[in-house]
Amino acid sequence: xxxxxxxxxxxxxxxxxxxxxxxxxxxxxxxxxxxxxxxxxxxxxxxxxxxxxxxxxxxxxxxxxxxxxxxxxxxxxxxxxxxxxxxxxxxxxxxxxxxxxxxxxxxxxxxxxxxxxxxxxxxxxxxxxxxxxxxxxxxxxxxxxxxxxxxxxxxxxxxxxxxxxxxxxxxx
Length: 172
Hints:
Blueprint: H1 2-20, H2 27-31, H3 33-38, E1 42-47, E2 56-61, E3 67-73, E4 79-85, E5 91-97, E6 105-115, E7 121-127, E8 133-140, H4 142-164
Antiparallel strand pairs: 1-2, 2-3, 3-4, 4-5, 5-6, 6-7, 7-8
């Protein structure tokens, strides 16, 4: 009896894992097309010069009109920055270098995670090219997080703009 119960538990766990890892394309079949269609996010694109004139910023919102993602592109349509948010408060900011082909690569990233518990604290990790950890912060207050994020976000944008628009050698 114990073997049967263990076998059923393992089978249920494997089935749950398979359903959780099913590709998004299978979601309409598993959930029903109408349920899936109701959950599609809304997207808005506006002109944005963060990565040069002619660039854009796309904002993606859920049904409750909460921002769940943002994407900044340069004038060639190449993604230079991407911000993703989840319902639990985790944020990921990715920064990209290269021309959008085989040399398209991470230029850096910022990951922010709330730390559970009664005190509102956050953890932030700064990654450089190749996922090298540049700096890690733990137990940041909201004010500390805002200050450190503003600094690193500005640094990352500056680095990416430097990669895609290198300064020309001057006369002096």
